[in-house]
Amino acid sequence: MSSPGFVTVTSDLLDALSAVAGTENVITDPAGVETLSKDYYWYSPILRERLEERRASAVVKISSLEVLRDVVSLAAKAGVPMTPRGAATGNYGQCIPLYGGLVLDLSGMDAILSIADGVVTAEPGARLSAIEAAARPKGWELRCYPSTWVKASIGGFISGGSGGIGSITWGGLRDDGNIKQIKLLTIEESPRIVVLEESESLLAFHAYGTNGIIIELQLRLAPAVPWDQMIVASRSWDALLDFTQAIAEDATLPKRLVSVLEDPIPSYFKPIRKFYPADHHLTFLEVASSKTAEVRARAEAAGLTVPHVIPHHEPRRAPMLSDYTWNHTTLWAIKADDCITYLQSGFGVNYREQIRLLHARFPGEMMFHLEFVRGAARHGPMNRVSCGSIPLVRFKDEHRLKEIIAYCTEIGVFTANPHTCYVDEAGRANDFEQQRALKHRLDPKGLLNPGKMKTHPVNPFVVPGSMPQFLFA
Ligand SMILES: Cc1cc2nc3c(=O)[nH]c(=O)nc-3n(C[C@H](O)[C@H](O)[C@H](O)COP(=O)(O)OP(=O)(O)OC[C@H]3O[C@@H](n4cnc5c(N)ncnc54)[C@H](O)[C@@H]3O)c2cc1C
Question: Whose CA is nearest to atom 17 of ligand 1?
Fold first, then answer.
């Protein structure tokens, strides 16, 4: 436990925590603490090396708001760092404590409080799959969710995620009023509840749990649709992109997923390889069941094949094609070849040319899967549909990764850097000044996930010169 600034939780505080949370909910055994201190940070070879030694001193499993209040109060009095944790599927080390102290495991605060009038109200630990399962019988479904939806919590999605399946219609979490309300607990000796409504709630969005603990939130839902899943295959990249872009931009076509996977990426998907021919580029779609015949006809008319369709089924559960898209693509690729890592890219309307340039400049080093989304028109309107990617990269070293990112910037490809655990280095378009102001207001002593908002001036635990340096730092 020798990482710089590491805060050990004293036995007096552990006793007090046990009294309010229950002895069985205060974890101090090293193996348990290690497991509950980590997320999918190992996706990045850089984070893997820099964060390996970082862990909490103890973990408290929280089952209710009352327990959370008492725990926060005790830890705030003691001046101990606290790092919230949902399901720990985040892939930037967001919930790995940099300075020891306590991990607060909120997965037990998982009540779905109501689903009414197109809004779900839930506690932060509620799993997205549980919300989807509860919403569908009432005629609603999530507007967007990450490919980790089976395990991921709604609080973790708001604090660490951005969008995913559904974003082709509803944009990302930050768009279109998708988040209605967030209730936060302050980090003080007498914790208060602060309610952020509508656009103000974005101040706590994608903040890596640094500016208040989410205790309840409201998301807007979409009317439920029966979704068929379809695989479209082609040896021609351009023909597949022509078809897929037209589907993505067709506003009359209800759809939840539009992903394109460049050959050889589909060869990594061992469990579903039997559903499509080898050596083909693929498009994975979720379209309304009522439109499946039409989409198939459009694909075939374009000279493409449709090797597999999975008809809608209830309840919707894994395995699903979306288990191979978004950042799950990276997971399957790393399973097949642990030298692979990734970037997160936003392309322009000239995305085909940008991909061609990247292939030409870094031959054999990058593989692309494209995720079409609505609204994130960072690089031009493109009929209000834009094209992002989580490109797979054969990792050589940090220098080469920097070269790739620099060239991306040169040709107009935006990179959200996944090789840092600092929210303000990750390149997302957050209003950091406002987020820092909220942190000052809600966490005046800087105890919440300290260090992750790197530019926040209050960090009582920092040891000068010892903050881990990541790519770009
Ligand atoms: C294979 C794979 C695929 C992925 N695909 C996607 C994707 O499609 N889209 C996407 O957006 N993300 C994706 N992710 C990232 C991640 O899975 C999602 O963002 C997920 O929603 C995080 O939820 P979680 O419960 O696991 O959060 P955690 O990892 O537990 O936490 C994430 C952050 O939120 C904070 N936090 C957790 N709970 C609270 C709370 N109650 N209050 C305040 N802060 C809190 C934590 O401190 C941490 O900083 C993927 C990751 C992996 C490994």
Answer: 89
Q: Does the pLDDT value for residue 425 go beyond 80? A: yes
Which atom, in ligand 1's list, is nearest to the CA of 173? 11
Find the domain containing 177 and state its range.
Answer: 112-224
pLDDT at 1: 54
- Give yes or no: residues 339 and 395 share one domain: yes
- Nearest CA among 100, 82, 89 for reference residue 21: 82
Query: Is the minimum distance from the CB of 148 to ligand 1 under 6 angstroms?
Result: yes
In a domain, 98, yes or no: yes
pLDDT in tens, 209-236: 999 999 999 999 999 999 999 999 999 9
392-394: strand order across its sheet: 340-342, 392-394, 366-367
Angle at which helix 292-301 crosses helix 237-249, to 10 degrees, equals: 150
Q: 161: Cβ below 6 Å to ligand 1?
A: yes
172 and 76 in a common domain: no
Report pTM: 0.96
Average per-residue pLDDT for the chain:
95
72 lines ligand 1 (CB under 6 A): no
